[in-house]
Amino acid sequence: MSRRKEKAKIVFTILEEQNPHPVTELNFETPWQLLVATVLSAQSTDKQVNKVTTLLFDKYPYPAQFAALTPEELAEEIKSIGLFRTKSKHLVVSARALLERHGGEVPADLVSLLSLPGVGQKTANVILANAFGIPALAVDTHVFRVANRIGLAKAKTPVATEEQLTSIIGRELWADAHHWLILHGRYICHARNPHCSQCSLREHCDYFQSYRKK
Q: Pick from 18, 48, 77, 85: CA 20 to 30 A from residue 70's CA?
């Protein structure tokens, strides 16, 4: 067993003991709503996204209703979210594309998802794993940071990090691994001033071991 694979087994055993059934903190009821929430979550917090989508999904629960809006109209609904103008354009165009190409249904395959405006690799993987139960490991800024700090990956890009993680983690754990790493990054392993003293992974973390030697 490789060093990283052995470390992954230890790390995820610890995180699973703390949180046996991790789930996304984004609120949604349908694949489309998860797509919207995930697109909105870029450079924003899940808490703020949930606050916005609570009202948004009450008014516009389906792609057809988004498709009937102009980007400017949707922008007014989500203006408390970062990059709201760009996101509103992407969501309106994506809704129209779903109606034209997929009968208004969010597709359950990576290639089709990536063809939608505003949907990148991370968003597509979030949808596959959380809306359809298809094994996928989304790498956002938290997952990228934590995986590389711990030493589960040694990569310069999210895509390379995803490739390295999926090579050492069983497919059945990909979705959970995403949640465990993102939650660890959100609440413990912050970009600045990580809470190493509170971290259950510190004895297995390359960053902590290097910091402790200084």
A: 48
Choice among 122, 176, 213, 214 that is catalytic = 122
C-alpha–C-alpha distance, residues 46 and 26, integer Å: 6
The one catalytic residue among 46, 59, 109, 140: 140
3-state secondary structure of 52: helix
Q: Does the annotation count 122 as an active-site position?
A: yes
Domain boundaries, the chain: 3-22+137-213, 31-132
Q: What is the pLDDT along the chain (214 residues), one digit of tens a residue?
A: 689 999 999 999 999 999 999 999 999 999 999 999 999 999 899 999 999 999 999 999 999 999 999 999 999 999 999 999 999 999 999 999 999 999 999 999 999 999 999 899 999 999 999 999 999 999 999 999 999 999 999 999 999 999 999 999 999 999 999 999 999 999 999 999 999 999 999 999 999 988 766 5
Task: State pTM to two decimals.
Answer: 0.93
Q: How many residues does the chain have?
A: 214
Q: Residue 206 catalytic?
A: no
Q: Give the end-to-end CA distance of the chain in Å, rounded to a whole number.
A: 30
